[in-house]
Amino acid sequence: LRPRQRGGRGSARMWWALILEFIVIGWVVVLVMKYLSGRNIPYHVVVSVWISWTSALSLVALVPIDLNLTYLKRCIDHFQDDPAEQENHCSLSYWLSWQAFAGGEEDSLDKAIRLSEGTLRSCWYWVFAVCQINGWVLLTFQQSFVEAQHFQTRQRLVQAAKENGGFYGACGVIALVFILILYVSGRDLDFWVTAMFALANAICLLIVAVMLGYGLAEAPKAIFQRARAKPTLRRALYNVFECHKGYTQAAEDLAGTLAQIFLLRKACGNTLRHLSKEIIVITKDCPFDLSSAILMHPTKGPSIPMTRAEMHSAFLGRLQEIEAGAVFNYEMTEVDQWINSLDNAQLLPRGADVFGIQEALLEAGHKMLGDVDGLDPGYRGQADKRVREKQIQRYIDDMNVPGTPLVHRALIAAIMKRNDEANALAEPELTHGEQIEDPEAWDVKRLVDLRKELYVAGKKYRRNKKKFDANARRAVLLQDLKAAREDLGDFRGMCRRLRSAFREGDRSAETGWDGLKSPVRKQWGGKHGLKLEVMSFVWAAILAPSAKLLASFLCAAFALMVLFSEISVFPGIKGAFRDAQQGSILLYSTCEAASVPPGCFTDEIPPQPWQTPWRVSTSVQVLIVAHLFFICGVLYFSLLRLRIFSIYEVVVGETDAFSLLFNAYAVCRLAPSIANNYLNLLQEAHEVPSESGTVFEKVFSGMGSIPFTHLTFNEVLPPFVAVSFLVTIANALTRKCVECPRLDGEAHKTDEMIEEAHGIARVERRMYENRFKISNSLKRTREQEEARLAAQAAENREKLERERARREQMERDLEAGVYS
Question: Are 667 and 53 contacting, i.e. CB atoms less than 8 angstroms apart?
Answer without folding.
Answer: yes
